[in-house]
Write a structure and sequence with these properties.
By secondary structure, the protein is an alpha/beta fold. Helices cover 35% and strands 20% of the residues. It has a single domain, classed as Alpha-Beta Complex (putative 2-phosphosulfolactate phosphatase). Strands 9-1-8-2-7-10-11 form a 7-stranded mixed sheet. Strands 3-6-4-5 form a 4-stranded mixed sheet, with helices on both faces. Bound molecules: (2R)-3-sulfolactic acid (3SL).
Length: 233
């Protein structure tokens, strides 16, 4: 029997979904989940996503390597920012990394009643799809959006994942259809489309255009990130 795939377009809406028994794939293309995938693919031991700066500070005080972003910028006092390029070096190898971001880590912490929480990005989308097709579970894609609002790039990821799972899953809601049609209408021009998103424009002011180019690359990494307790491994 085919399982269902559903798409939640904002963490503000996740309370409307019953996550029990399901796989939730959390996505924040720009940039939190792209960063997490990059960090683990480049040898970080595990990622500890936390929703608040206070939680991140308490880890920092215990000597953990910590990243903190608010409004796109690195938070003062934290050694790491939210660029994937900051996670491609020896400094992170073998270490747990604590991350708090404006939207991405909040979406993860709001998903924990699911049977399994995965972290998805274009960078590992094929690995996520392959993993899901081996499970006998319904799926919800949880888009982190921006401060409760829907965004373009996470919706595009949702559509791309729906396309990859089209033969194995029923499209359980209108948002699965919407995101699929949207992705299919722009997929040959993904980078240019994402460059026009509100968040890409915000990030441009911070001069991180190369992050945007990197975050729309598809299936660079063959890894699946799964939340085990408080850690993504
Ligand atoms: O909101 C988030 O979680 C961040 O990924 C935003 S930013 O890309 O670092 O600006």
């Amino acid at each position: 029997m085919k399982r269902n795939i559903d798409v939640c377009l904002s963490p503000e809406l996740i309370g409307l979904y019953d996550l029990k028994g399901k796989i939730v794939v959390v996505v924040d293309i720009l940039r939190a989940t792209s960063v997490m995938v990059t960090a683990l693919a480049n040898g970080a031991k595990e990622i500890i996503p936390v929703a608040t700066l206070d939680e991140a500070k308490s880890y920092l005080n215990k000597g953990f390597l910590c990243a903190a972003e608010r409004g796109g910028a690195q938070v003062e006092g934290f050694p790491l920012d939210n660029s994937p390029f900051s996670y491609m070096n020896e400094e992170i190898k073998g270490k747990p990394i604590v991350i708090t971001t404006t939207n991405g880590t909040l979406a993860i912490t709001k998903s924990t009643t699911a049977d399994q929480v995965l972290v998805g990005a274009f960078l590992n989308i094929q690995a996520v799809a392959d993993y899901i097709t081996k499970q006998d579970k319904d799926v919800i894609v949880h888009c982190a959006g921006w401060k409760g609002k829907t965004n373009m790039e996470d919706t595009l990821f949702a559509g791309a994942l729906v396309e990859l799972l089209y033969n194995s899953h029923n499209l359980a809601c209108d948002t699965a259809h919407l995101s699929l049609k949207y992705y299919q209408s722009v997929k040959d021009n993904l980078l240019e489309t994402v460059k026009n998103s509100a968040h890409a424009k915000r990030l441009n002011k911070l001069h991180v255009i190369k992050d945007i180019e990197f975050c729309v690359k598809q299936s660079t990494y063959d890894i699946v990130l799964i939340l085990e307790g408080k850690k993504l491994i």
